[in-house]
Amino acid sequence: MRSNRLWVLVGALASSIAVLAGCGASPSPAGAEGLTGDPLVIGVIEDTSGAASFYSQQGVRMIEYAAEQVNRGEYPAEIAALFGTNSRGVAGRPIQLVTEDDGNDPNRAVQAARKLVGAGAKAIITTSSSASTIQARVVCQEEEIPCIASANASADIVKNPNADFVFTISPNSTLIAAVYSSFFKAKGYRTVAFVADSTPSSKAVTDAYRAALEGAGMTVVAQEVIPVGSTDATAQVSRVAAAAPAVVFTTCSSAPEEGLFYKYAGDRLATTPKWGTNNLTLADETVEIAGPAINGAKAADLRSPDNKYSTEVAEGFARAQGGDSHLAWTSLTHWDAVMLLKRAFESAGTDEGPRVVQEIEGIRDFPVAHGQPGYTVSFSAENHNGASARAIVPVVFENEHTVVAKDEQMPQ
Amino acid sequence: MAIHWIDALSAVRVGLMYALLALAYFLFARTTGTINFAIGGYAMVAGLLYGSVVTRVGVPPVLALVAAVVVATALGSLTEALVIRPIAARHRDEFVVVLAIAALLFVLQQLAGMLFGRRAVVARPLTDSAFTVAGQTVGVHDVITIVLSLAVVVLVGLWVARGRSGRMTRAIGDNEDAARALGIPVQRIRMLTASTAGGIAGLAGALAAPQAGLTIQSGVTLSIVGFIALVIGGTGTAYAPLVGGIVLSVLEAGASLIFGSASRDYLMLAAVLLVFAIRPEGLFSTRVRTT
Amino acid sequence: MTELLACRDIGKLYGGVVALKKIDLAVDAGEIVGLVGANGAGKSTLIDIISGNTRQSRGAVHLRGAEVRGGPAKRARAGISRTFQLPQVAHDLSLRENIACGLAAPRFRSPYRLAAEWFHSAVHDTTDWGLVEEVSRSIGLSGLERAAGTVSFGDLRLTEVARALVQQPDFIMLDEPFPGVDDDGVAGVLAALRELSAQGKGVLLVDHNVDIVASIADSLVLIAEGEVAIEGSVEDCMASQVFRHRYIGVA
Amino acid sequence: MTSTQIATALPRDRRVLGVQTWTVAAVALAALALAYFGFAVTSPYRLDIAMTFTMYSLLALGMYVPLFLGGNIDLAYNAYYAAGAYSVALVGARTHLPLLVAVPIGALIAAVLALVVGLATTHLSGFHLALATMLAGLAVYRWISSTGAEITGGADGIGGIPRLEVLGVEFDRELLVAVGFLAVWLVALCLSRFRRALPGLSVRLNRASPAAAEAAGVPTRSMKLMSLMSGAAIASLGGTFIALMNQFILADSFSHDIVFLILFLPMLGGIASPWGAVIGAALLVLLNEASSLLEGPGPLIFGGASLLILILLPGGLLGIAATTWSTWARRSRGSFDD
Questions:
Q1: What is the average pLDDT across A62-82?
Q2: What structural domains and CATH numbers belong to chain A?
Q3: What residue ranges in chain D does DSSP mark as E strands?
Q4: This prediction's pTM
Q5: Chain A residues within an 8 Å CB radius of B261
Q6: Which of C16 and C67 is assigned the larger pLDDT?
């Protein structure tokens, strides 16, 4: 009997190992046929299972697409003007990607970053959450390699300590909050209600916006939290409705909970203007849960249908993927990260991290695929966040899809 | 602050979901003596299954609901047959069973992650139709949820109180050896209650799926709220879980309205410690079951 | 002889059911008292009350003239030890380890002592294994390496007796220690009890085998229907028709 | 293989070449640890993994006395883990005190938290205790991540923790891992001694029969509190080391997910000895090295193996080893006797 049990266990373990062995082969550089140089290895931290997976997964696919385009030397016109139409690879070297999962767990993010460095990565792009990047950037600092957190909005990422080698591309929450402050002021909103979820990052984002809006003279009349996993947000809507704010601002990190709020806010907050952070337009889940009640909600997106560069990247990506309906703005900023790295490595002429970082710090008016038409980013030694307010594109939900909110003029 | 009737309706809907989960705990514990902390896991699997097949495969919602309940029923009986029975046969320590059930919940969570993905699954309701009462939209799905849940609670209550096999569950819970001596088919009744408990949890999960983005983490959350509802209600009668579920939901909604939901976790802890301190047997009980 | 332990006017209600009506009982230093009675007469309840495992509804227990209060652990430290009718041992511990647990009574005198022993034991084992060995040998229990889950019922009883003995008690209560125990074991336990008695300790012995009890006890107490029915010296009791009828007749 | 049989398979004074088995085991494990350390220093990534092993081991060892000896299911271990980590972070980044004081402070805070949890759950056991302590863990996580975010830094975390320096020696990453291994080895050694001495035996008797333990003079209430507190203090060391190693911590690391993970480690390794917890942690790390365990089917296999072991082989890997050893010993002895 006992030996039977042992054999069952041995069998189970053996089959598990067989399953494991089938996973984890690393792909060779795509689109690199004919490129002879040593591959330039770029590490990507992804989240396949945690809270960031809903934008990380598409982000990784976009980075793969961008690397392939670089290897092929095929670029939209805006960037081709910079690189030349047939500039293949990074100074003739193919980009090779290595990917590590961190499950959005900050402790694993450090290990993932080290594993990437061990695999020869000369730069790292993070697609997981801000918390994960904040932890992983320590490795970039130690190893002296550039790290680009292209999708993260936390202002703390580029704040010292350990921020010498890390860059962000998209506007961080401090910048967006400043835009909102003057924007709401101009619209005459005096009171605001915050709706967040129970994740630590949502709390941090809320605090940042709250400080900015209060600094601009607004009064916060309610700050509600929707616990992750809730099946109901009636009480939160009731409290917001009772506080009668001039505007509702949703600062969730978790998409379903944000959707839940809009679902229940549909009737009782129908006439109150509702704005969300750039998180609102990221995930389909928000709209799926809220249904038609989402219509009328507005948000600061980073993607404009009027931006030809954006459209071209999005369409190319959709073709390569066989049609992806909803492109998150985070994916556009990941494309930009790859282009930025190509530029910096080429002008540095070496793989040495400090030199490459210096080159990134020297980049001015670099055309990017996100933001309003013609939007560019600029870095400096003091400013590792290249964004400006022109990245922000106000959008409104109509028929459960976002369109540019033409009547909203946000400060530039 | 005036309490809106829609607040009350939501509290009842959520309370009934808690009640179904607590009822599943109740049935499972009645004959096996085990607080099955994997109950929320069944609900999570059922909810994800319902959401996935409706949204991704295009199965009609009613069919998906039935499938979800069937799968959860199977999970309940498998738990009894493959986990609890073999362990209870060898160990007298309750804590080994607790560990095994924690491992089971973890396994269900990871299995669901493999099958349905780790992103939130948003399910379509049984029907999209809704009607308007006094300016408020009420989904037909919500009404179905309330009616169906109440019906299940009442039917199970009647079964336990009046039904032949239902009354046997009582005998087994009170004294297994005596029940065996009386010729009660102990194993069969156990299997019956375990699978019924699974099915009820599955129903709760599938009905709740369109209300939120269920993720594999929802299993633990659902297990916790169901257990708390059971603790509040007690195990005295089959209707105790109903009362426990409604009381928990009303407390939660009331506390959210008064203090805001930011304090929810603290209030949960306080409520549970309070119940354990002053009425460890729950609101309804025939016997004390604390230690 | 001085009075060691006394039960004064003890009553116990379980719910509405009377388990013990009124018990007065005294054990002197050096005395061995046999407690007998039918099944359900309340013998084990009385032991539970004296050891503190159950709270009496009425009355008081006195040890050396002072009222005993508090839980079983406190009473054990005051010098009261006991065995259980159904042996209560840890099945995953060896017999030796089970017996050693009795050392808790003399060792964990205060929370401070507990804390000190707690940390000390992680570095150095100060358990008095010699005493465990000696006590076990004295009652004829061997094979101490065996896990408690694998030994006979009789050996479990002896293990409990040994655990009660290593507590170095002033007053020991044995609840049916003999069923399943072989003759050597019985002789060993009896010898140990005589030794205790000689040292001026008190013994309360409960067993169904009236011959064994009578062979060692100084006096007998018969309880029936929650009251002391008969008490007196062994000779008087054994001579009593009522005693023979009620005890031997029923049991 | 039941726990009873394990007890018989591992008697206290079995000797190999005249030396006590546990001494042999401790020395062998020290050699293994040294070998692993040699392997870990070969890459920064492996060093991180080695520290993760240290952290998992210390958390699981912290659970050993209250849970696996005492049967008290305390699931608030994320709180104790956090106590150790935040003590280091706050002392290191916000004060000018020597960083070493953060170690006892963390252990003390963890022990006090455990005391509060223990006092609040005095009369609870089994599933009810599990629920109450899990909610306590959730409440502490809520406090770290939002209510107390001004102190803990919440999702932004606390950075800038200096390297530990004692008597002019800077504890770099390699040295920290070495000290971490030493701590695991010492704690496991102490626990295996504790387990077989009077206090440990009392804890184990209390689990089997509280009535008997009480009657034997064991102050069960104080003892439960002692085991919860010392377990929490050991677990806090896991947080201490992680914070010292990464020099940065943030709220997301301290959710109750980690409690479930470490709960399985002793089961895998075998609960009959504290070394089982260490073996379980080593196994997790080993699998992690062999493949990316924590992606894809890894956690499923991990949880499934734990469940299977609980159902089929409750002795864990150590139990299997012990059975094999005793069978082999019996056979070889048998052949000599003939």
A1: 90
A2: 40-171+306-381 (3.40.50.2300), 174-301+394-404 (3.40.50.2300)
A3: 15-16, 19-20, 165-166, 169-170
A4: 0.89
A5: 198, 224-227, 235-236
A6: C67
